[in-house]
Amino acid sequence: MLGTALLRTVGPPIECIAATRLDADLASAPQVDSLLSRHRPRCVIHTAAYADVDGCTRDPERAMRDNALASAVLAAACAARGARLVMVSTDYVFSGEKTVPYGVDDPPDPVNVYGESKARAEAELARAASDYLILRTQWLYGPGGRSFVAAILKRAAEGSPLRVVDDEFGSPTCTDDLARALWQAAVSAETGVMHVTNSGVCSRLELARAALECAGMDGVAIDPIHSSEWPSATRRPLRAILDTRRWSETGHEPLAHWRDALAACVPALCKELTIN
Ligand SMILES: NC(=O)c1ccc[n+]([C@@H]2O[C@H](COP(=O)([O-])OP(=O)(O)OC[C@H]3O[C@@H](n4cnc5c(N)ncnc54)[C@H](OP(=O)(O)O)[C@@H]3O)[C@@H](O)[C@H]2O)c1
Predict the structure, then answer these.
(1) Cα maximum dimension of the chain
(2) 241 and which of 14, 92, 101, 263 could share a cystine (Cβ 3.0–4.6 Å)?
(3) Ligand 1 pocket mutation pick from 6, 21, 234 by most atoms within 8 angstroms of CB
(4) Per-residue model confidence as pLDDT tens for the chain (276 residues)
(5) How many domains in the chain?
(6) What is the Å distance from ligand 1's center to 47 Cα?
């Protein structure tokens, strides 16, 4: 999903080569070496992950392989070639129990396998990479992938009942906005950890209602539920809000408010989902 946004937003003077699992399994050092030798990138933007949170709970081995091991292999290969590495990470490295937003220096304290595997990926970069930036983000949605926003629009269009949690909070982030930030990060000299999300905070329920409104389906009813009523074997952080100050303090424009970003993106999502 985020990879397709990078391709939609790239432009001169940056030249980009996109790679998928068909080009290299990132957990295989020989395949990664061969890919990087072929293209000799100055910077690698690492968006690959096993990002299915419940899937990670069911298959922790795959989570550790595709998230932690793959990042370690890529970090070593980039360091060996002097390539900059920009990796996308997640609010799920935090428990969400803190009452104020998480800063870039807060230690990870994940509460599920996905979060743990991404926290390990971050630690691998800190250990093995030389020039690296970890960019944590939250609640992504956009064309070309699976997301909460797309799922809500699809269910509403099908006339399926909607139950949405009202006690989970975050900053919904549009993949095109994040992709533009990633291109800036790729050519910057910043290292370490940054938090980048669209501005503002809302609950899942508010996000679902806003998405339906943008799609002209505001008459669709939603049954608000407590997170404990949602059937899932995975514990999720309920309030892992990311403090994005380092992004703006280093001269970058803050990303648009989540409501404006959502309004700009929903028409493309509706088109993709063939919702009129
Ligand atoms: N989605 C969110 O809400 C969210 C929120 C915060 C952060 N993030 C992070 O943002 C990034 C992008 O997420 P996304 O939603 O765009 O994910 P996505 O749509 O699931 O795309 C991830 C891609 O990574 C590929 N991949 C996984 N393991 C690989 C490996 N070993 N070798 C090569 N390719 C591999 C997957 O290929 P296969 O399909 O073949 O496995 C898939 O194409 C991830 O790092 C994720 O952790 C996502």
Answers:
(1) 56
(2) 101
(3) 21
(4) 999 999 999 999 999 999 999 999 999 999 999 999 999 999 999 999 999 999 999 999 999 999 999 999 999 999 999 999 999 999 999 999 999 999 999 999 999 999 999 999 999 999 998 899 999 999 999 999 999 999 999 999 999 999 999 999 999 999 999 999 999 999 999 999 999 999 999 999 999 999 999 999 999 999 999 999 988 889 999 999 999 999 999 999 999 999 999 999 999 999 999 987
(5) 1
(6) 6
Known catalytic residues? 114
Please report which residue ranges of the chain form alpha helices under DSSP H. 2-9, 29-39, 53-58, 60-63, 70-81, 113-128, 148-158, 175-187, 204-214, 245-249, 258-272
Atom of ligand 1 nearest to the CA of 4: 16
Provide the CATH number for the domain around residue 121.
3.40.50.720
Burial of 29 (0-12, 13-18, 19+ CB in 10 A): middle
Question: Which of 46, 50, 91 has most ligand 1 atoms within 8 Å of its beta carbon, as the pocket-test mutant?
Answer: 50
Q: Is 183 in the pocket of ligand 1 (CB under 6 A)?
A: no
**What is the residue range of 151's domain?**
2-272
